[in-house]
Amino acid sequence: MHYVFEPGFFASGPVHVALAVGTVIAITSAVVGVFTVTRGQSFAGHSLADIATTGGSGAFLIGINQFWGYLAFGAGAAAFMEMVGIQRRRGRDVATGVVLGAALGLAALFLYLGTQYSTTTGASFSILFGSIFVLTPSTVPALIASALLALVTVIALARVLLLTALSPDIAAARGVPVRAVGAAYLMALAVSVALSAVIIGAVLSTALLIGPAATALRLAKSPLKAVLIAAGLGVAAIWAGIVLAYDSFYWPPAGRGWPVSFFVVTLVVGGYLVTYFRRDPRRAGHEPGIDAEQACSPA
Amino acid sequence: MMTDDLLRLENVSVRLGGRDILKDVSLAIGPGQFTGLIGPNGAGKTTLLKVILGLQPVTSGSVLLDGAPRPSRDSSIGYVPQKLGLEPDVPLRVRDVVSLGLDGHKFGLRLPSRARREQVSDMLTAVGAQRYADARVGELSGGEQQRVMIAHALISRPRLLLLDEPLANLDISSEQGIVSVLARLARAERVAVLLSAHDMNPLMPVMDRIVYVAAGRVAVGDTDKVVESSVLSRLYGQHVDVIRVHGRILVVAAPEGVDEEEAAAEDAGAVR
Question: Is A281 a member of any domain?
Fold first, then answer.
């Protein structure tokens, strides 16, 4: 047993906090992620993560908790994206090359200045790659409350989001305020990205958002099953990541644990690859009939 | 008779970016009528459907449902859009899509219910889609998706069903399948159908009336009266011929170089 759970694992306070907060955030990220992939907004999630990096670095520079920086910049960016309609494919190229580049450049400056004036060691590392074992106890209630808020928002919007994914026109014709729903969803996404940034780092936060969701969507056909599987995978990756990171304290170079985010991201990617190379069971069920869309090129 | 109309458009015009998309369009649809909305691509068919759905504001004119202005939220109109563009990984099975037709516009969660499951199954059987009820909708062929979307639209029991080019890009047998499912359900449930298409021929056996759209204007009435050279030439603003071959109808423009008067004279000659 102690080969898996090294001595002290169950008695460690930071481990308890990490497991509790990690569980809540993993569930939120995975559930939000199912709708992110369904709506084709993975790119928006990634952009929010990049901009959150700037926010986290800025917060570090002015000496407040990084979570508030992630949250403020993520939410601000979400509002801006909603206004200019960054979802459009043409906007994406410009956004990737110019806006996100500028955001990360600014993050580099903030981190440089921050480390010059502060004695906190490893701040750059924890902003970029997470710090689940050194969560500030006072922010824990805020983390959990934000996670539950994002989760409840997305669950309340679930059916409307699915109808909108099916056809925005049908949704609008049935009286759904499509634009407002999209904005509320994007806010929940920004919150979820900020939360993942706290535990696995701003630049990796989309891994927890998209990875479990994308894997679940390969395994489950129905929306409910996809959400449940994604949440299960997210939690499993976080728990296993925490255990392995704790164990790695005894791995070379001994006395310094490996980063949790490395384990989490590796497990998430590994899970996806397993489902990717597995024979697709969906193909065995239904074969679409031949029709002109497949037989001829589009008119 | 006027007050019996389910839907009335009165002098509807839509102007977008300085261009007239629809000009002074008036039409009426009665309960249970099967109407073909026919016209070439870009004539304004989709805009007309969006006006009826309330998705496209009108520049002038009015849209009346049961003689009153169209309410902003109305479940008496069902809609099947032209294309879904769903990726195969979207986690919606065919039965989920049909179920969303009942309550997809509502917030919050719903509890599973046997009555709902049966209602969805019955609807899938009615459109002939029960065979792929558990497949993901993004994996289906175009014709299969149309059947699913018809079930999605009909399950909330609308009195008017709008379909935007449901026959586009379908092979001939899927096309006939869709038309006969629609005609059968429209009769059985007394749902009025307004279906847009650029080719009227597949609809000839089932169409009660035609709304012909060209250059933003419409001609409405029985097929024989509307699909006629002089009516359509006025609509298009140029001479077009209507050719009937073995019960099928072709609408063709006069070849370049033939001016209007010459063509008209030719027609007169043919009549003589």
Answer: no
pLDDT confidence band for B271 (50 / 70 / 90): very low
Instruction: Using pLDDT thresholds of 50, 70 and 90, give the confidence band for residue A100.
Output: confident
- Cβ contacts of A35 on chain B, cutoff 8 Å: none
CB atoms A292 and B142 under 8 Å: yes
User: What pLDDT band is residue A247 in, cutting at 50, 70 and 90?
Assistant: confident
Nearest beta carbon to residue B89 from set A37, A290, A292: A37
For residue B264, what pLDDT is reported? 56
With CA atoms as reference, the chain B residue closest to A178 would be B105
Partner-chain contact A293 B108, CB within 8 Å? no
Q: Residue B266's domain spans which residues? A: 228-272
Chain A within 8 Å of B19 (Cβ-Cβ)?
Answer: no
B-chain CB neighbours of A221 within 8 Å are 91, 93, 134-136
Indicate if B3 and B57 belong to the same structural domain.
yes
Nearest chain B CA: its distance from A158 CA (Å): 7
Q: Is residue A249 part of a domain?
A: no
Cis peptide before B71 (omega within 30 of 0): no
d(CA A188, CA A164): 17
Q: Which of A158, A162, A225 sits opposite B109 (nearest CB)?
A: A158
B2 and B69 housed in the same domain? yes
C-alpha count within 13 angstroms, C-beta hemisphere, residue B225? 8
B250 in the same domain as B186: no
> Measured between alpha carbons, how far is A156 from A120 in angstroms, rounded to an integer?
41
For residue B32, what are its two tokens?
């249970």
Question: In B166-272, at which residue ranges do the beta strands (DSSP E only) sit?
Answer: 192-197, 209-214, 217-221, 240-245, 248-253
Residues B271 and B164 in one domain: no
Q: Quick one: average pLDDT of A70-98?
A: 75
pLDDT in tens, B221-255: 998 888 888 888 888 888 999 999 888 899 988 77
Domain match, B166 and B261 both: no
B58 and B166 in a single domain? The answer is yes
Number of domains in chain B: 2
Task: Please count the structural domains in chain A.
Answer: 1
Q: Which of B50, B84, B100 sits opposite A162 (nearest CB)?
A: B100
List strands edge to edge, sheet with B77-80. Answer: B77-80, B160-163, B192-197, B34-38, B209-214, B217-221
Residue B107 belongs to some domain of the structure: no
**CATH at residue B67:** 3.40.50.300
Residue B62 has pLDDT above 70, yes or no: yes
| DSSP reduced 3-state for A235 | helix
With beta carbons under 8 A apart, name residues in chain A contacting B144.
288-289, 291
Record: contact B106-A159, CB cut-off 8 A: yes
Residue B255 lies in a domain: yes
Give the A:B interface size as CB pairs under 8 Å.
133
Statement to judge: residues B4 and B57 lie in one domain: yes
Write down the ipTM of this complex: 0.87
The answer to whether residues B69 and B1 belong to one domain is: yes
The pLDDT confidence band at residue B263, using thresholds 50, 70 and 90, is low
- Residue closest to B84 by CA, chosen among B71, B73, B100, B72: B100
* Domain that includes residue A78, residue range: 30-210
**Is A299 within 8 Å of chain B by CB?**
yes
Q: What number of other Cβ atoms are within 10 A of residue B234's Cβ?
A: 13
Q: Is residue B133 part of a domain?
A: no
Nearest-by-CA chain B residue for A226: B91
pLDDT category at A123 given cuts 50, 70, 90 is: confident
